[in-house]
Design a protein that fits this description.
Number of strands: 0
Oligomer: single chain
Largest sheet: none
Order of helices and strands: HHHHHHHH
Distance between the termini: 91 Å
Strand content: under 5%
Number of helices: 8
Length: 263
Amino acid sequence: MDRTRRTILFEAAERVLEAPMLLLSLLFLVCELLLHAFTLSLDTQSMIDSLLWVIWGAFTAELLLKLYLAPDRKQFLRAHWIDVVIVALPFLRFLRLLRIVLVTARALRSIRTIMHQHTLSLVGLTSITTVIIAAALVFAVERHTDGPIETFGDALWWAATTITTVGYGDMYPTTSFGRGVAVFLMVTGITLFGLITANVAALFVEESSPLIQSQRLEQVLNRLEQLEQKLEQQTPSRRLRMRRYRRREPRRVSHIATDDTTT
């Protein structure tokens, strides 16, 4: 298969697989949330584990397909290193929390690709997803400590107040990992609200820009009308000058001819 054919198929595969893989990523995060945040029966845990392995198989198949179709395989692996690590992490069970973070990053990347034209929707979905994932991570590490976060509802309340940079202080993490998640939430909250502010300002600019354009167009039309009036005023005088010139020209020619004959 030549390089051009592979490039076309690679781009088509990315367009077709982006939305289904996003749904699988979100389903993966929900399953991990259920395993970490709730006490489930052994049968339910086994069913969720089986579903996670199926999702992992889909991730592996997608990675291998794109790797086969990629025009530059080394560049593809460097650009999609998160996907490579996600495929390898199921064999490293002690890094399960890291796998959740990586799948979250993959989901956010897919959301950004699909919804790049809908900033407000992207911000809202990103905020909700980040709050839920952060709450699950903090609850998983804080529930066995002496801190104030004892239930998943406490973790959700803490995540919501942290991402909005309110911080009531009634809920707070005590472990180093939980504090790291808190810092990530603070930075994410500031960034997201900055995007909302910029998008709202852009809406006002877009609403006022047609008015500005219409005013400029009206000024240009008025200027053109003034130029046309000046041309119409100057045209009769120019025509009269041309007529006088044409009348004088034959006389000059006749004088030149008579001078030549006399000489």
